[in-house]
Write a structure and sequence with these properties.
By secondary structure, the chain is α+β, with helices and mostly antiparallel strands. It has two domains: 92 residues, Alpha Horseshoe (Serine Threonine Protein Phosphatase 5, Tetratricopeptide repeat); 103 residues, Sandwich (Tumour Suppressor Smad4). Helices cover 36% and strands 22% of the residues. The strands form two sheets. The protein has a six-stranded antiparallel beta sheet with strand order 2-1-11-10-7-8, with no helix packed on it. A five-stranded mixed beta sheet has the order 4-3-5-6-9, with no helix packed on it. A hairpin with a 7-residue loop joins strand 1 and strand 2. The longest helix has 20 residues. The relative contact order is 0.11.
Length: 213
């Protein structure tokens, strides 16, 4: 998987050079895909450089520019600079809340193809295949949810699943209802590893089981 992402980074860097020389709008798209590949490789320092290139290309106020500002905030967040990340998210306002990562046709997160979520207590009979087109997936009942749970006891953006080279991670986004893995309550905004067979509880009423496909 690492080799696949690395090859995609090299290809997209070449595409960026060609598109920028021609002032082709695809330069912005190749830059977005490149950053998402760097995220999957956990090369956040390099991602910051490319985010700034994307912002310079598009400006900060355009839709594309805002997507680069969002990626820039995420890069700083994953490097542990929460102050800088918060400043950038404040710049975006409500638009900075969990903007989804874009599809990566050259380097799909292969791990995503192997996982699904199965409803258990409180949500029996439901099953979700995790979409391989996204590096991050929101679980919740709101309009931004990729895994939609139709329950008033679930927050609109309850938890986030993140695919990384080192494995699948989960982040609790709900300070009201909480997220639990195998009965252990997760601190908000902190990554925790999850594996097939683990039980993910949304609040105290709905259990989901992570399984491999």
């Amino acid at each position: 998987e690492v080799g696949l992402y690395s090859d995609a980074v090299d290809e997209l860097q070449e595409a960026w050079k060609l598109f920028t020389q021609k002032s082709d709008p695809e330069a912005s798209r190749s830059c977005q895909l490149l950053i998402d590949c760097l995220f999957s490789l956990e090369r956040y320092g390099e991602a910051i450089d490319w985010c700034n290139r994307g912002i310079d290309l598009n400006g900060r106020k355009t839709a594309n520019g805002k997507s680069f500002v969002h990626r820039l905030a995420t890069s700083y967040e994953r490097l542990g600079d929460l102050t800088k990340a918060a400043q950038l998210k404040a710049e975006l306002g409500s638009e900075g809340t969990l903007m989804p990562s874009l599809p990566m046709p050259h380097a799909q997160p292969i791990a995503a193809l192997r996982f699904g979520l199965r409803g258990k207590r409180g949500y029996e009979g439901k099953e979700f295949q995790l979409n391989p087109d996204f590096v991050e997936l929101v679980i919740g009942r709101g309009p931004r949810a990729h895994v939609f749970i139709d329950s008033p006891r679930v927050s609109k953006e309850h938890a986030l699943l993140r695919f990384t080279i080192s494995g699948l991670k989960i982040i609790n986004l709900s300070r009201t209802n909480g997220t639990f893995v195998n009965g252990e309550k997760l601190e908000p905004d902190v990554e925790y590893p999850v594996d097939p067979g683990d039980s993910i509880s949304l609040g105290k009423t709905i259990d989901l089981e992570l399984f491999s496909m």
